Structures are given as C-alpha cells and as structure tokens.
Amino acid sequence: xxxxxxxxxxxxxxxxxxxxxxxxxxxxxxxxxxxxxxxxxxxxxxxxxxxxxxxxxxxxxxxxxxxxxxxxxxxxxxxxxxxxxxxxxxxxxxxxxxxxxxxxxxxxxxxxxxxxxxxxxxxxxxxxxxxxxxxxxxxxxxxxxxxxxxxxxxxxxxxxxxxxxxxxxxxxxxxxxxxxxxxxxxxxxxxxxxxxxxxxxxxxxxxxxxxxxxxxxxxxxxxxxxxxxxxxxxxxxxxxxxxxxxxxxxxxxxxxxxxxxxxxxxxxxxxxxxxxxxxxxxxxxxxxxxxxxxxxxxxxxxxxxxxxxxxxxxxxxxxxxxxxxxxxxxxxxxx
Length: 335
Known about the structure:
Strands 1, 2, 3, 4, 5, 8, 13, 14, 15, 16, 17 and 18 form a 12-stranded mixed beta sheet that branches. This protein has a 5-stranded antiparallel beta sheet with strand order 12-11-10-9-19, with no helix packed on it. Strands 6-7 form a two-stranded antiparallel ribbon. It has about 325 residues and is mostly beta strands. A hairpin with a 2-residue loop joins strand 15 and strand 16 (about 285-295). It is globular, with a radius of gyration of 30 Å. It has one domain: YerB-like fold, CATH 3.50.90.10. It contains 4 helices and 19 strands.
C-alpha cells in the first residue's frame, strides 16, 4: 500500500511539473528551537573601599602599602587621592607620616616614598601584601620583617622606583604603581578592614561641619565637610591639601582612633599600640558617630569597629582616612 501511495504522489507531482526528491526533504522540516540562558556575573565589591569594582581587578591582587612623607618638603604628594585607605601616624620627632594602602586603583606616581616605622607593623600585619619603603633604622626594619609582607625598597629589582632630579634627597623618591603590583603576595585579595553602609542607608549622629585633629607641633590637620562632594576636605599647614595631580584630598570617611603610643610620642622606638581596644570617632555624611575599636590578641586580627551599643559601625563606600591620635587627646569638633 505504501509503495502505491508514493507512486501516486510522484505521478501527481510529476504531472503537475513538480518533482520530489528525498534530498530536498530537509527544506520542508520545521527547524528545532534552542534556548540560550545567559548568566550575568555581578561585579565584585572592592575589599578595601566597599565600592563596586567594574574592572574586577581588586580581587586579583594583594594590598599595596606605601610609606609616604608628610612634611612641608614632601608637598605635593602623589597618588594619595587614589588610595583605598590612608593611615596617619606620629613618628619620631613628633612629625606625622602616611601609610597609604592601594588595591582597587593604581596611581601612575606615588610618593615621596620614605622609611618604615614600628607602627607600620601594627598596621600592615592583617593585610599582608606588598610593603614599599625607602629604608629605615635597624630596629624598624627588624620589626617590619616579622610581618607577613613582601618588602620592596629602591634596591629591589623591578620595583619601578625612581629619583626625581628636580627635587633634593630624601624628598625625591617616587614609585610607579603598575610595576609594584607585578610582585606576588598573599593574601589575594586582601581582607576587608571595614563594614559598609548599604545604598540609601541613613547615618544617625551629631551634625559636624569641621574636625581638627591635634597632632603635635605643626602637624594638626583640619577636615571640613563638603556638602557638594559629600566628603571631608583636608587642610594641612594652613593650606588646602592638593595632590600632585591637582586633586583636593577629600575622603568619604574620617576615622579618629584613640591609640596609646608605647615609649612616648616622638621617641625613636615609639609606636601606636593597635592591640586591645580604645575609643573611636567616625565622621561621615556630615555626622559624628562615636564607638569603640577592638582587636584580638593576634596581630593578624582585623580591627573591629562598633557603635556604643555594640552594633557594627558601618562606613561609607569610598576612601577612608584613619588618624592614629595619641591617647588621651581628642579632636576638636565644630557643629
């Protein structure tokens, strides 16, 4: 019966001038449909700034801490505006120096690069990563060697550090950021140092327009709330703190930590003891939020920040400056 039907079909089509060929059969078939599922991988949060990282680079590299000079001879400083976190510490002679931490962004030029101090060991231990400095006294170098960091100096091959011939030593040593990040170090990525507010989350606290941090000698720093940029404009030596690229230094968060300087302020072996606990004042969104900082017995423990009621003290995503002020001094706050 099947043969008769096929013969009849061929006969009919042939009589109509149409010829059937099995090789043309596929043209009459309905094509199968396929469904493609696209998975969008969310952008990561940069661990040291809390900002969404559209480059995804922050989770592929360690932290990079560079010691930067903070005297009048150092100005203008380079690269500071791109740091995730900046620590301001008191060193020998009562002057201040910066420990500048990079991860999410890489400046073309950083500096002036200066020497290590014992407080740096307290700061860098939980971060690990890369530590860049010009040198230092034996006691300070011995201290930083104990930390789990990759140490990089001017003499390290491939460091990308250079001397500016238009400035005089020791205020003329700088570093390029990209060559430094070619060095490998752990952990990668670095641990988060702060917890952050969610988008739209309100800050409850006392309104503040200005904060003066009373560092010794000529080094008091004034921070003024900028309603336009929603950040704290930094003033140093009575002038606006403008970086080498012409940017006003103005972080989203200002953290003033009460710290006890062991062996006294300004001595050669002095350092800020960041183990234990102390009072902390956090300034963000034009507000002051008071709380406590604490750190476990291990140097590897990350400092925890809590409100006076024991809840996590949340920061704004963005750059954070941490002022390590000697106890019992407190900043002068202007409403």
